Amino acid sequence: MGLLLLLVLCTLAMSCTTTSVPLKVPSHLPFLLRGCNDADMLAMAASVLQDINNYLKEGYVLSLNRVSAVQEHRQDGLGSLFYFTLDVLHTTCHVLSKKLWRDCEERHLHEQVYGKCKALYYVNMPLRILYLPAYNCTLRPVSRGKIQNMCPDCPIPANLSDPKVLETATETLASFNKDSESGQYSLVKVTRASSQWVFGPFYFVEYLIKESPCIKTEASSCGYQPTHYGPVGICRGTLHRRFEVKLVNINCDFFQSQLAPLETFHQKGIEQLSLVPATEEISLENIPLLKAFLFQALTPRRRKFSVYQRNKKPTHSTSKDVLSGSVQYLPELDDEESQETDPAEAFPVHLDLTTNPQGEPLNVSFLFHGPMIKKLFVLPFPKEEQRSAECPGKASMSNPILLPP
Description:
Radius of gyration: 28 Å
Oligomer: single chain
């Protein structure tokens, strides 16, 4: 009995001197590399690009050519922050038309503008939150030299300040006003122009128009007086001079109000979303429906942190609540420049919200109900070589001159 007691006491003494194993604090998980051809990533990329188009105030609607890279950073119970790199193209739709990019026609190769966009996209499917905090795009027109080598007779870009361009816009609009059975319209600005020689000079122009206070019986010069209204449509006109004859062709598309369709969609969205369970398994195919609902439900709260108010100082936090979005246009790259220029410099797209390799918090409490503060963790934008072996994805227009390096 005495021996047993001694053994117990020795065991207790040894246990008292044993040190516990230190608890390892897990570091932030690395990016999850997602496939660029995965159906859910393609659906999400389409939604990202539609958001970018919705924010644009000038230029043409961008379409998705391919997903170049996508990385996912999971947010510890708050969903995921996705880092998208997208290859994009110009369409024939002006951004003021508010058309979905899928409903817009692709431009011909010789008049294309192509480029690259980087975007952060926050997704919280259980709480039905889709949010674009920031984006940056860089675009260039296709190389004129390469186009001329492929198609010597194709139209070439013209200077927008060329008097012949303004003459084409003026005369084609005058022809439209002459045949108009409704109002009269005046020129806002020329947005694109090109020229071609086919038994004489051909000029092609695209320009924005607005309603004019003039009536049809007044002098033609009256049609260009300023009004207080913005652009109401876009026209595409051509003027061909053959000997002493002028041949004019004009077609105008008017912008449609988006208010009624959104209100109708909102009512349908509420009814349909009520049938969708709030789980992680919600299909990303519901993104368009979900976005329409969220646009109506969150617009008053989201506008406070709109990318177009990025200089506004937040009052409740020192974190970077208000982020930014921008599109920059660069001149075309000629053959020599494309060979000498570093690929990263050819399409410089910067979206580093932080240079801290450990990351920084981003306050997104305004996306949630209740007083609780919600923060995402933002890391420096990953390099493109940090992407899945399945990237870049399949391109809708695979011509090499339309694919950024």
